[in-house]
Write a structure and sequence with these properties.
Elements (H helix, E strand, L loop, with lengths): L1 H5 L1 H22 L1 H12 L7 H4 L20 E9 L3 E9 L7 E9 L5 E10 L1
Antiparallel strand pairs: 1-2, 2-3, 3-4
Length: about 130
Amino acid sequence: MVTDQVHPVLAAIERKLSQQAAATLIRRHGEPEMREILRALADEPDFPPARLLWNVGHGDVPLHCFLRTRHEPIFRVLRVDVTRLTAAIAVEHGAVRGKPLIREEFCLRRGRAGLLVIRSRRIVSR
């Protein structure tokens, strides 16, 4: 918030880009599905962006608040494939300037309780 007050124009651009990315994801896959997928990522213990996604299950927080396209820590959703029982998501994240972003792919499967759980995780590039 302090950075947003110091640079309001950059904050407005970041907000618009995040809103556009969230709107695209919602239009393609639906908001409940995206929240469920991101909630499963938030439950992954050694996933650094999990600290950003901890309250993604709360419907009163807009989905665009969890996407960070330019400001650190960066968290972008690159690709999502959803079926009835499975989901696959590719994300890009990073927090240190000058270092390359980390791209990861997750495969999720619906468990016995009906919730998505991470079945496999793969780092594509660092």
